[in-house]
UniProtKB/TrEMBL annotation:
This is Branched-chain amino acid ABC transporter substrate-binding protein. SUPFAM superfamilies: Periplasmic binding protein-like I. Residues 1-20 form the signal peptide. PROSITE patterns: PROKAR_LIPOPROTEIN. The lineage of its organism: Bacteria, Bacillati, Bacillota, Bacilli, Lactobacillales. Keywords: Amino-acid transport, Signal, Transport. Coiled coil: none annotated. Belongs to the leucine-binding protein family. It comes from the Bacteria. Residues 42-382 form the Leucine-binding protein domain.
Amino acid sequence: MKKKFAFLFASLFLLGACSAGPSGSGSNGGSGDGGNKQEGDTIKIGLNLELSGAVAGYGTQERDGVELAVEKINEDGGILGKKVELVVKDNKSDSNEAATAAANLTTNDGVVAIIGPATSGATKASIPNVTKAQVPLITPSGTDDAITVNGETVQEYIFRSCFQDSFQGVILAKYANETLNAENVAILGDNSSDYAKGLTKAFEGEYKGNIVLKENFTKGDTDFQAVLTKIKDKDFDVLYVPGYYEEAGLIIKQAREMGIEQPIIGADGFGDEKMIQLAGAENVTNVFYTGHFSALAPANDTVEPFIAAFKEKYGKEPSTFNALAYDAMFMIKEAIESQDSADSVSITKGLSELKDFVGVTGNITMDANHNPEKSLVVVGFTDGKESSAEGVNP
């Protein structure tokens, strides 16, 4: 059953190939003999994240979440009595760089698991190299359905701690239908990302009303006046904007300044405080998007201690991306402990069998396609602050 909650704080919330980099055996065993082996007194986990470039907002949040998790794990005695060591690579928000980082982490640094990239395109670019090395990868926020399943084939070494685009698109369509009572929808989507295309496709497949207009923009666009004028002239109840925070913030700002007052909905790509900064807090009213984490719609008893620990370390409230990455690290911990081994192939098996994992973003069971089964939250904003949340179970 759906329940509505008021939010006490503004949480922050993606995001959408090629292989690059050296090949060969990793220093902890390598791809030639069954993945990388855990050796020495530490368990090496790689981070392949967007720490600079266009979507650095996502990657830096995820780094903070992982670092908090590792700090807690090490303070509590590590994993199997060994400390966790992070090896951090900046993929610069570039898919080719992400592929190279994946190769370096697996073959040169000998990590036994990787967290990241944050975006769908960069994650897909990393798949060939981690698969060759037999090292598992968890993306905290790469939501493109094709990340974990290629055609009908499950990507053996690829997992995620977030839900996928098809789920978000379906939920947003239902939310438009059932909660916003929208009979007519206009769509303004990013045609340059797999993320946005997947969201659009899923929404169109589920929405029961009329799509009165479907327009596109391209990443990096800043002037939406012409397309918003076309939209304003239509009879619509909701504007659906599948895209990232950079463009979404400007679209919201320009739409509201033009007198477009209808609800604006989107997915977790809205989820960065920069979206509100770009839009102007006064314009972020009647705006809704899907998220993975909420303080006042807590999934379980782990949420409150996580929030307290995050605030103590970073001096601010945690975001969805912080929480997803935090969960990814603890998923790896649970996988290692379930197999009593920190070798990469054993971790892969542990992740594929993950069941009833209690994470701050929800209670997770990994399905056959390496996607987590867990709940989702639709967050509503008024004057730039969260004012409602609706939990939705899968």
